[in-house]
Amino acid sequence: MTAPQRPSHPGPIADLDAVLGGRRMRRNRRTDWTRRLVRETHLSVDDLIWPVFVTGGTNVAEPVPSMPGVVRHSVDRIAAQAEMAAELGIPALALFPNTDPERRDDAGSDALNPDNLVCRACREIAARKLPLGIVTDVALDPYTSHGHDGLMEGEDILNDETVAQLARQAVTQADAGADVIAPSDMMDGRIGAIRAALDAAGHTQVQIMSYAAKYASAFYGPFRDAVGTSGTLIGDKRTYQMDPANTDEALHEVELDIQEGADMLMIKPGMPYLDIIRRVKETFARPTFAYQVSGEYAMIMAAAQNGWLDRERAMVESLIAFKRAGADGVLTYFAPEVARLLGKG
Ligand code: PBG
Questions:
Q1: Is residue 9 situated within a structural domain?
Q2: Is the Cβ atom of 225 under 6 angstroms away from ligand 1?
Q3: What local confidence, expressed as pLDDT, does residue 345 receive?
Q4: Among residues 214, 237, 281, 323, which one is catalytic?
Q5: How many CB atoms lie within 10 A of CB 21?
Q6: How many Cβ atoms from other residues are within 10 Å of residue 310's Cβ?
Q7: Is the peptide bond before 269 cis (omega within 30 degrees of 0)?
Q8: Ligand 1, from 141, 223, 334: best to mutate by most atoms within 8 Å of Cβ?
Q9: Cα separation, 196 vs 179, whole angstroms
Q10: Whose CA is closest to atom 6 on ligand 1?
């Protein structure tokens, strides 16, 4: 005896229309054209800033193992990267150096060297006169032997002495052709000091994108591999980067940076801090950027490589999330790939 066949579905609920009263949300989702029509947030190539790693040597293209698809380029290869970015319509790239360990010292002296990797890369790019902004990172960690963003005395990170050094670093970068100075160090008072130093040096048009709310995050791990600080960092950065548990404090940080003269603000990391982006944008209504950091990139890439996530869809969804949260743009290692995808329309 075989069991009686059950219907494949239970049939419609008789009185659902009465419950819905005609309100059916799915109507607007039925077809691609209507989904496009009601879409609230759009990702565009204009939203992208591409972080690029610069390394020593000539004709070096060195993959970063913990960031699949990301390559450190020697200075002679940087202009080609910049040209590619400009051709894709990416508005700006952000430079980060992998300084030779031999050039790193306690004071991060190479940060002030007009011929350091970042300054040389700036000159290479600026000489091409591309429709592309050059963002440079102001902080001492890629230059210090201890891997901290500031100068140290014993275990302490010295604030005011560091700020003086950062202001000089910013001017050095602007002299080399940087368009946007992006201080990522989280010292107190550095935005005001950098603005004053830039103005005094005649760089009144150079913008400042402040890493205003930067958290002491585990998600920077792969970046520290890329700039060679994972091995050198002594301790952690919790005396200057923010506690991941705080949100009012982020507003306070942002407020101070605006008062001190920041033109643009950044929240970092990105996806775990979408609530901060939203609060900052709603409170201050200023140009606000998110940094989808190395660990966020690595998570998506690692899962995709295992076949656990669709890379392209996860990439686009993660970037749309920043826009939806209120970000005006995103620093992302996916920039060239997503620009190509958007270009295809
Ligand atoms: C350091 C700096 C960091 C990043 C940008 N600038 C790392 C850190 O604070 O240790 C992280 C970027 C990333 O993880 O992609 N000044």
A1: no
A2: no
A3: 62
A4: 214
A5: 7
A6: 13
A7: yes
A8: 223
A9: 16
A10: 184
Closest CA to 79 of 99, 91, 67, 93: 93
Reduce the DSSP state of residue 4 to 3 states and report it: coil
Determine the distance separating the centroid of ligand 1 and the alpha carbon of 185, expressed in angstroms: 9
CA distance 193 to 197: 6
* Residue 159 counted as domain residue: yes
Q: 249 is in which domain, residue-wise?
A: 46-344
Q: Whose CA is nearest to atom 2 of ligand 1?
A: 184
pLDDT tens digits for range 232-286: 888 899 999 999 999 999 999 999 999 999 999 999 999 999 999 999 999 999 9
CA of 190 to the centre of ligand 1 (A): 17
User: What pLDDT was estimated at residue 3?
Assistant: 64
Q: What is the pLDDT of residue 231?
A: 83
Which CATH number do you get for residue 300? 3.20.20.70
Asked whether residue 209 is domain-assigned, the answer is: yes
Assess whether the C-beta atom of 139 lies below 6 angstroms from ligand 1. Answer: yes
The answer to whether residue 121 sits within a structural domain is yes
CA distance 196 to 327: 27
What letter would DSSP give residue 21?
T
- The residue contributing the CA closest to ligand 1 atom 14 is 220
Is 129 one of the catalytic residues?
no
H-state helical runs in 13-53? 16-20, 32-38
CA–CA gap between residue 254 and residue 265 (Å, rounded): 7
Angle, in degrees to the nearest 10, between helices 190-200 and 159-176: 40
Q: Is 268 in the active site?
A: yes
- Confidence (pLDDT) at 22: 86
Q: What is the pLDDT of residue 163?
A: 98
Low-confidence ranges of the chain (pLDDT < 50): none
Contact 184 CB / ligand 1 (< 6 Å): yes
CA of 223 to the centre of ligand 1 (A): 6
